[in-house]
Amino acid sequence: MFLAIDRVSKFVYVEFSNSPSRAEGSAFLRGVVKAFPYQIRRVPADNGVAFTRDASTKYDMMQRPFDRVCDENGIEHRLPKPYHPWTDGQADCMNRTVKEATAKTLHYDTAHLLRAYVPAFIAAYDLARHLKALKWKMPYQAICSA
């Protein structure tokens, strides 16, 4: 599961993938760019294989599809320092929220059922949950007024 959260509006975008590959990571970023109604300036991503490159392919853009999508859209790609997990706290907190509302609460016989429920939870979060950090607005209201 790939998850993006806007730091200002708290709007969440989620996509599922079969494997966290570089191609899946770049396809996810293209979906994020389409989902958000404004220009994205920075993407702080973790050091997962979908967002980084091998040390041996340091200068080969063909091996860095996520960076290529960032360049195409004028986005600065930021990676945290190794062993500094506190730099991606909002995404981790939202991952925990999704897990608590789905996998830890209900039992799913198949992964297909989980994949069907998570987008419904995210839609309810974005469209119906009033957040104190947004002065009791919903994330969708905050992103529309931005």
UniProtKB/TrEMBL annotation:
Domain Integrase catalytic, first and last residues per copy: 1-146
PROSITE patterns reported for this sequence: INTEGRASE
Organism superkingdom: Bacteria
GO MF annotation terms: nucleic acid binding
GO biological process: DNA integration
Matching InterPro entries: Integrase_cat-core (IPR001584), RNaseH-like_sf (IPR012337), RNaseH_sf (IPR036397)
The protein, known as: Transposase
Species, as recorded: Lichenibacterium minor
